[in-house]
């Protein structure tokens, strides 16, 4: 390890170990070569639908758009064999419209990003108030961003204190901690941030790759580093933490590759939406498209699946 | 010193790139003397699927170009073919035709491209209309491209047949996924190299080579293909028509058993453009 690594990082790495970056890249390259056909493929596609956090996080979101998203979340397709998605993921201001659309006892949960998503650059007091408001308005789950500035400066205690404070504000609602992997620079740092978060989290909480608002998002590589961190942490403490890759997963093929990574790293216990989620918006349509392809045998046009109307 | 021979690996032109089949399969083609010439990609239904995705990506941009610009680009393709006549003649002569017959086919193909290039900014004036209505409205009918069109080229006239089917489809802003002649695929490979240098955006024309029986069922059922222009025998036409019913696509067939004379004036027409257009009629209040 080069001498420029700050002492705080050195101490942490000596506890949790570092990542063999070349090994990770080589491992995940293998996941894309698995041949998944017919029944196994259909199983994987439906499982991926049930693990989706169907997301809309745009400045132009309206209550109407969120309501139609909720309808799609509950009944993604007219085929009743296709399960509802796990959750809708919206901004705190859209939690009320989502709750109104879904009702009290919906099969779909409401996840809200909070804590000054996506930058997190707000006073802690404001961020906590945001979390409390979202929970009070009906959010079932909270997605928070970590303080990357504090992490990179080596102020780990501050990062963990903030996560703990948000956790307290969540009450019983599961928390998903966004590491924003693209801003952590290295696999070693991703592993370090995963451990810092998991040491605070409860069973049933999640760590999450990205906000989807930066150039680089979830990749098989950073997914793998985090899955291995979850595995090591589980073997050490017995606390199972969930995982949510988000951003950049647009095709059914990618989703199946991520599921292969879960199956081969953490095993079947994590192949459930209580422990693994996809944060995505356009993925659902491609999953439905591939499920329909498996059913009919014919390749499907994207505009049959509520894709943008001007699609060619 | 003996120099090792540098032979070309024929690859298909899909999405603006030269690719092998995703299956890795190839089939051998022979020259007129029966000697091995090269291995050509044997494309599969997955290659067809990928080509359709490429065509879908290229489509909106191509349709938004001005008709004048599309005409320029088709003309440029004619220029490229004219300038590389010798390469194309060699490719055609693999099929056993004489040098003069090859030259005749190339000239006809260039002329066909120029013919459709000329129509690019003119067909709308002929096919569109302002319709008389008994109310204070303007009533216009204008044309729009359909989208992605599947082309199944004839086995004979491997260059001219392909060009005669593709040019009228793309001139209006459609994109094409075409299956080249299975017996003589090499001219389509060379044509792909010309397409790549003709300012035509990648993905507007995608050329596949391979066995008809592998690919025709997917051409028939793929719902993202809006129409088919196919030279096919009776059995193939039936299979294509059945698939087209299921996926609601327009079909335009030429009977393979009645040898079409692609050199004829009748093989080019404004109506070949119309076959792959949608018509949209708009009401607009007068004075508003």
Provide an overview of this structure:
The complex is a heterodimer of chains A (312) and B (288). Chain A has 312 residues and is an alpha/beta fold. Chain A has helices at 7-16, 21-31, 38-50, 63-74, 95-102, 124-136, 148-152, 156-170, 187-198, 220-237, 252-265, 283-296; strands spanning 52-55, 87-90, 109-113, 141-145, 175-178, 206-208, 242-244, 278-280. In chain A, helix 5 (95-102) links the parallel strand 2 (87-90) and strand 3 (109-113). Chain A is globular. Chain B is α/β, with parallel strands linked by helices and 288 residues long. Chain B has ten helices and twelve strands. A five-stranded parallel sheet of chain B has the order 9-8-7-10-11, sandwiched between helices. In chain B, strands 5-6-12 form a three-stranded antiparallel sheet. The longest helix of chain B has 21 residues, at 99-119. Chains A and B meet through loops of A and helix 1 and helix 9 of B.
Mind telling me the C-alpha Rg of chain B? Answer: 20 Å
Derived from helix and strand composition plus strand pairing, the structural class of chain A reads alpha/beta
Q: Overall 3D geometry of chain B? A: globular
The amount of helix of chain A comes to 40-55%
Mean pLDDT of chain B: 96
Strand content of chain B: 15-25%
Low-confidence stretches of chain A: none
How many runs of DSSP E, i.e. beta strands of chain B?
12
Q: Quick one: biggest sheet of chain A?
A: 8 strands, parallel
User: What is the number of independent domains of chain A?
Assistant: 1
Helix fraction of chain B, binned, reads 40-55%
